[in-house]
Amino acid sequence: MVHKKGFRLALIVSVCSVLSLTMAAPGTFAAKGDASKKVGIASSSQIKKAADNFLKKHATKYQLKKNLSDLKYVTTIRTKAASYVRYQETINNHPVFTKQVTVTVSPQGKAKLVVSDYTPYNEVVAIKSKLSAKAVQSKALQRIGAKEKDQSAPATQNYGYTIQDGKAIPVVRVVSHTSKPYGAWETYVHAENGKVLTKKNLNQEATGTGKVFQPNPLESYGATSSFSDNRDRDSTALNNQLKTVSLLGLNGTGYLKGSYVTISSKANTYSSTNTFNYTRAKNSFEDVMVYYHIDTMQRYIQSLGFNNINNRSITANVNTISDDNSYYDPSNKKLTFGSGGVDDAEDAGIITHEYGHSIQDNQVPGFGNSSQGGAMGEGFGDFLGATYEDATSSSSYGKACVGEWDATSYSSSNPPCLRRLDNNKVYPADWEGEVHADGEIWSQALYDMASTFGRDTATKIVLQSHWSLTPNASFSDGYKGMLAADASLYGSAHKDKITAIFAARGIK
């Protein structure tokens, strides 16, 4: 199977209510039978008990109640290297949105790491009555700047709390889908007076790029060139960069639907013989790009030993919007690739970057709620895209660079880059408060790990570390998660080098 490279700026995964989500089950081990033999010595019940006991013993350190009465157990993810017990902070059995605690436990049942978003409070604001669902939605739409007729899908509402200035405030979390303004919007509405406390666009957009190229025409060519998008027109030079690949896992219907990808597109691509040979002048070309590169990435993840990370057929909307951006929507678990500029789905790096957000949301629902968490999300997407590109290119052109093909329309550098993973940014001196720029701090640390340990080892450590984190995890939490993952997978064989790599980025 031939690989393709490319990268484009992608979106941030936003917060989701843990209590309204179900963790992906594929690949997890059962709590009985011979599952414990596959994972380690401790059983599922022993793992949970170890996490409970550790939190009770260290309740003061993490500002928890000693009996853990306001922590609701959510799930235990079991892997051969370690297990991850996740809890949700609650008040009156309702979630405190985005506030979670995760305990990493060794196969022998020893707690190794706690990452906590738990937030204590001094007062629970009392309310006499709750607004109706209709009134709540009206307040949410008003804050978004939309009208009822602008809704493109039914809204969802969940009751819970948010903590501000030591007060636990009763709120309704609303996710609205609107066509004007476009996107999926999250609002927290005061449950009694209707005041909108926060508003967030879950579809954090990114500049577009596109699509099979292996991984993009610049990298496969191996040098700077005069390639031009020219409004999707074919050219001999670009056609010469097309590679023939195998499309695995198709369901046999003639459409690009398979084990790990379901294409929903403007082209509605179909072939009775499952032969999908197109040039970029046809919209179906982007459909093939997205199917192939996502399918290839998921198979790579499983080849590393993970069969419970985003193991599903993800819906990818291709060329369904004319904007020059792409995004992952955590509220419906779908990817969308725009057709503005160089079509985003023509660049494998961008496709892979967007898939990275879906991966993190699957491992930690709501990941990236904090500013550093958002930067970690963007940095992980860049790392995934850049290392995928490197693995599918025989040349050194474009190393530590993402989005070469997409960037031809706005970058004068050689190679043209959307972002780089070797700018030597350091936290906090180079912190800008913009997730994509700040993501370059995190992405370089991950990319340096791949350069030092190899792509496979680095990716295994990074993916394993995600389970230790929470929606509001910080750079420091992420770094500690790396050390815990290395300890679980490799007996801390890479500890010193990981420490040095992150220290060079100002993270400890």
UniProtKB/TrEMBL annotation:
Residues 207-233 are annotated as: Disordered. Residues 83-116 form the FTP domain. GO terms for biological process: proteolysis. One of its GO terms (molecular function) is zinc ion binding. Keywords: Hydrolase, Metal-binding, Metalloprotease, Protease, Signal, Zinc. Residues 1-24 form the signal peptide. GO terms for cellular component: extracellular space. InterPro entries: FTP_domain, Peptidase_M36, Peptidase_M4/M1_CTD_sf, Zinc_Metalloprotease_M4. The keyword Manganese does not apply. Coiled coil: none annotated. This is Zn-dependent metalloprotease. It comes from Marininema halotolerans.
